[in-house]
Amino acid sequence: MVWAVVGGAVVVVCLTYWFLASFKEKASPSTYLLTIAQALLNQSNSSVPASWTLRLFLASWWVTACVIVTSYTCNLIAFLTIPAYPIKLGSVQQLANSHQRVCMLDYGSYLPDALATSTHQALSALGKKMDLVPQNRTMPYHNALECLDLALAGTHAMVEAESYLRNIVESEGRGDKMYFLEERIFEGAVSFFFGKSTPWKYKFDEGIYSLLESGFIGKWYRDITMELRGPRRPKVI
Questions:
Q1: What's the CA angle centered on 73, arms 72 and 74, to 5 degrees?
Q2: CB atoms within 10 A of CB 68
Q3: Cβ neighbours of 29 (radius 10 Å)
Q4: Residue 55: strand, helix, or coil
Q5: What is the spatial distance between Cα 198 and Cα 192, in angstroms, rounded to a whole number?
Q6: Is 93 exposed, middle or buried (0-12, 13-18, 19+ CB in 10 A)?
Q7: For residue 100, is it left (φ>0), alpha (ψ between -120 and 50) or beta?
Q8: Which residues lie closer than 8 Å to 42 by C-beta, 6 or more apart?
Q9: What is the Rg, in whole angstroms, of the alpha carbon atoms belonging to the chain?
Q10: How confident is the model at residue 237 (pLDDT cuts 50, 70, 90)?
Q11: Least confident among 114-118, 151-155, 220-224
Q12: pLDDT, tens digit (0-9, with 9 covering 90-100), for 62-85
């Protein structure tokens, strides 16, 4: 579009200059074309017309051409010298619209089916490009590191519970190479497991709910994750 506009402007300027010059002097159209094109190539004119009408017209064109050439030169320098960093995703919608796929360890989680059948547009898009990494109990983290490698390669985004994922990233020393989306797909549960018909279960329900509402669980969670991080804090963006 830009080059089409510049080319059209050159044609219009050449025709206008040829029309104005036809009243004062006779010359071939190629001469006028070269005079107009010289300004775009930073070439000076060996002579200027005697008519002040033509001089004012050329002066206005030279100023316009100077702006075009300077803009093009600055953009070209910026394109060649400034590195282009990848766009950092900040939301689930951006992840759904990106080229990156989603990976998760295949351990029977409900999440892949839930995303695939979701009525939410972004979540449904994530479900359609979900890749499940096969579980292997003989591998570290049951082969979850394969999914982590795909995320580091820039082709996938790893989906997992935040605590578990942070633990893997920090224990493998990759906290400075990855970041976590602030927006969450699903919330993790804070719970204890009891046998059926436990008579005093409601007491634990009340206690856990009180700790959750008072902020103690969040505080303990942050303390534990900071302890796992150690002296090197990961780069979370």
A1: 95
A2: 17
A3: 13
A4: helix
A5: 12
A6: middle
A7: beta
A8: 69
A9: 33
A10: very low
A11: 220-224
A12: 888 888 889 889 988 988 888 777
Structure tokens at 20: 């104005």
Query: For residues 214 and 195, what is the distance between their CA atoms, to the nearest angstrom?
Result: 27
Q: How far apart are the first and last CA of the chain?
A: 36
> For residue 24, how far is the Cα from the chain centroid?
58
CA–CA separation, 44 vs 192, rounded Å?
83
pLDDT digits (tens, 9 = 90+) for 191-230: 677 888 888 888 888 888 898 889 888 888 778 766 755 5
* Bridge partners (DSSP) listed for residue 105: 133
Helix (H/G/I), strand (E/B), else coil: 140: helix
In the block, which residue shows the tokens 């902020």? 215
Query: Per the structure block, which two tokens stand in for 155?
Result: 């082709």
Token pair for 204: 């634990």
Q: To which residue do tokens 């093009």 refer? A: 72
Q: To the nearest 10°, the Cα dihedral for 168, 169, 171, 177?
A: 160
**The model's pTM:** 0.53
Q: What pLDDT, on the 0 to 100 scale, is given for residue 3?
A: 84
Query: Which pLDDT value is given to residue 236?
Result: 39
Q: How far is CA 106 from CA 144, 149, 186, 224, in A?
A: 9, 16, 17, 27
What's the length of the chain?
237
Helices (H), the chain: 2-21, 29-40, 52-81, 92-97, 111-116, 121-128, 144-152, 162-171, 201-214, 216-229
Q: Which residues pair with 158 in a beta bridge?
A: 103
E-strand stretches of 12-97: none
Token digits of residue 74: 């600055």
